[in-house]
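Propose amino acids for all 202 sites.
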């Protein structure tokens, strides 16, 4: 690859994510600014007020969910949505996606190698869960979007433990195999099973 093409590619790698992020922020700003709020004409104040109200609503509902009343309300909403044909699929899928993305219990644990067919291996992560018949539940992410993938049930003898850290494994998957697993990379907030199980230093 010639020098100018390499420079152009490097520049796009840095600038393109920034431009996409700014475009999304601008689009969201315009959408929120269109929300009609009586007595508030300035779009900046309208967006700020909407964000404040939404934040307070999220925190209030989250606090309520810690109580017995919150559990009853959630159960009632689940029951009502599950009675609606068609919409219950969307509701349950959205709820599962939100729980997967936001719940602390879904932190990725130790990476492993799974031999999917002869001569080929794929990177998966332990979930810390097992099936009734003793199989390990593993999450097999897709590259480069690790928010999608497969949950597979595997015999403990059918996957191989590695000494690789969760951060190195995620770096390889997020970069579609092109990234370098080094300490110079961007830190990823993950929970490594090996670090959790290691005894504290004396």
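Proposal:
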């Amino acid at each position: 690859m010639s020098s100018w093409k390499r420079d152009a590619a490097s520049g796009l790698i840095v600038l393109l994510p920034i431009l996409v992020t700014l475009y999304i922020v601008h689009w969201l700003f315009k959408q929120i600014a269109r929300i009609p709020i009586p007595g508030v004409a300035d779009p900046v104040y309208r967006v700020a007020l909407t964000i404040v109200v939404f934040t307070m609503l999220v925190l209030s509902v989250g606090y309520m969910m810690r109580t017995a009343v919150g559990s009853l309300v959630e159960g009632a909403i689940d029951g009502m949505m599950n009675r609606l044909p068609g919409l219950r699929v969307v509701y349950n899928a959205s709820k599962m996606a939100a729980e997967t993305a936001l719940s602390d219990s879904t932190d990725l644990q130790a990476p492993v190698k799974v031999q999917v067919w002869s001569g080929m291996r794929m990177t998966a992560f332990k979930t810390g869960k097992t099936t009734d018949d003793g199989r390990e539940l593993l999450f097999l992410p897709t590259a480069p979007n690790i928010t999608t993938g497969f949950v597979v049930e595997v015999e403990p003898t059918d996957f191989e433990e590695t000494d690789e850290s969760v951060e190195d494994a995620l770096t390889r998957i997020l970069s579609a195999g092109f990234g370098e697993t080094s300490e110079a990379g961007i830190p990823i907030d993950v929970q490594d099973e090996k670090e959790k199980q290691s005894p504290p230093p004396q």
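Residues 183-188 have pLDDT under 50 and may be disordered. The chain has six helices and five strands.
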